[in-house]
Design brief:
Length: 440
């Protein structure tokens, strides 16, 4: 059998100790036309094999098997027993000393659940890189944003990914406050050496949230600064989050501030309308609450900033509809939005331009640019026309929203008015957009 022959070769190549620990417990579960399924005792065992021995296993299989079947690792339904070496203590080869230290993770804070948009794409990509130990962005990542925009989601997504794909990685995930409290306890217990060993020697990736909470805590800043220096120089990974950029943090030591900014510093902005609509749809799907497109647009249009407010609104709508035994309608949606964010903002040029940009798949920045490409000029003119129709903004105010003067706005209104009269297709487009705006 192919696997039996491969095991004999691997025993010679890897040595008795490694073979007994990591190869012997692996069983051949199935051989198909183009692959060989090898069953491991559990997912941790499988992850370790994949990281350290899969390449050599595939190489030896290819030498024996003329079909060069691909090796696929899976988990066995019943745990296999690792045979002990009689009278001898097994030493785990290349096995990291110490384990991970992770506070409870939100089960939905994964990369798959994160809504990527222009406002957060760099932070998302950087966290993806950190989770697979890609050194393209360097060993240190600093993410800052206002509350509720996804810092914790991305940080926990890194932890989820590492625990799933590379569970042998020693990951320490704490808030800055937890780090400070733990340090104080160790100082009082006179066991700081144990504390330093845990973080300096037995840590492959450190995730620290809410660094801004260390304001004025000089001793903790010094200790964390020393730790960051040690980990970064050792090629380990560090992810930090805060509500402001390093240079904007008050009460933070200059050297510590500089250390935090030594790698990639990225800011998560508030999501644009398109991304907010996707977030609303995601929350509705999760809470099994069907809702018409106009209601989705209204929620996305009026709930900005803190993404958690979107979920709060969805939960409230679902609860009110269920308790009242009634269908979801616009009055209910508006009532909940008002309770979550207060009175809806008056319709203005910024809201309309953002909406039109989403419909034509162009950004606000593109419409504000000096470009005269038709793909940008037409949406810009339509947006100006609708701003004039649906707001009390003056021509000057509308022009400012697009970096134009009032004469350009007046020209755009005349152009769109003429097109709607001469071209039925454009007339229907503008009418549809206008009807949607009236429902805001």
């Amino acid at each position: 059998m192919v696997w039996d022959k491969a095991k004999e070769i691997l025993q010679e190549e890897l040595g008795e100790n490694v073979y007994t620990l990591w190869i012997e417990p692996v069983a051949c579960e199935q051989i198909q036309d183009n692959r060989i399924r090898l069953a491991c005792p559990d997912r941790f065992f499988s992850a370790y094999i994949a990281e350290h021995y899969l390449n050599i296993i595939q190489e030896k299989i290819n030498e024996i098997d003329p079909l060069h079947r691909k090796v696929v690792l899976c988990e066995t339904k019943s745990r296999l027993q690792i045979p002990p070496i009689r009278g001898e203590q097994l030493q785990l080869p290349n096995f990291p000393v110490g384990g991970s230290c992770v506070r409870s993770l939100h089960p939905r804070y994964t990369f798959d659940e994160f809504m990527v948009g222009e406002s957060n794409i760099l932070a998302h990509s950087a966290c993806r890189s950190m989770s697979i130990n890609d050194d393209s962005i360097g060993p240190c990542l600093y993410i800052n944003s206002s509350t509720g925009l996804g810092k914790s989601h991305l940080t926990q997504a890194v932890a989820h990914q590492i625990q799933t794909v590379s569970p042998m990685t020693r990951l320490h995930y704490v808030t800055a406050q937890q780090f400070s409290s733990e340090m104080v306890r160790e100082i009082k217990a006179n066991t700081m050496e144990r504390f330093k060993r845990k973080y300096h020697e037995n840590c492959d990736i450190l995730l620290v949230e809410d660094v801004h909470s260390l304001t004025g805590k000089k001793k903790t800043q010094e200790e964390l600064n020393e730790l960051l220096d040690s980990l970064i120089k050792s090629g380990k990974r560090v992810v930090l989050t805060a509500n402001r950029s390093p240079r904007e943090l008050d009460g933070i030591d200059g050297e510590f501030r500089s250390r935090m900014a030594s790698g990639l510093v990225t800011t998560i902005q508030a999501p644009d309308l398109k991304t907010r609509e996707r977030i609303v749809l995601n929350k509705l799907h999760y809470h099994k609450l069907p809702m018409s497109e106009s209601y989705v647009t209204y929620l996305a249009q009026h709930i900005k900033g803190d993404v958690r407010q979107i979920e709060s609104a969805v939960i409230a709508i679902r609860a009110k509809a269920k308790l009242s035994d009634c269908a979801v309608d616009m009055n209910l949606v508006k009532e909940v939005v008002q309770s979550v964010v207060g009175e809806p903002k008056t319709l203005n040029s910024q809201i309309i331009s953002e909406f039109v940009g989403t419909q034509y798949k162009v950004s606000i920045q593109e419409m504000q640019s000096r470009s005269r490409k038709k793909a940008l000029t037409f949406p810009r003119q339509v947006a100006m026309y609708l701003c004039r129709k649906h707001t009390q903004d003056s021509l000057v105010d509308i022009g400012k929203a697009f970096n134009r003067d009032h004469s350009t706005v007046l020209h755009s209104i005349k152009v769109v008015t003429g097109l709607t009269l001469r071209n039925i297709s454009i007339g229907e487009q503008v009418k549809l957009l206008s009807n949607k705006i009236e429902k805001f």
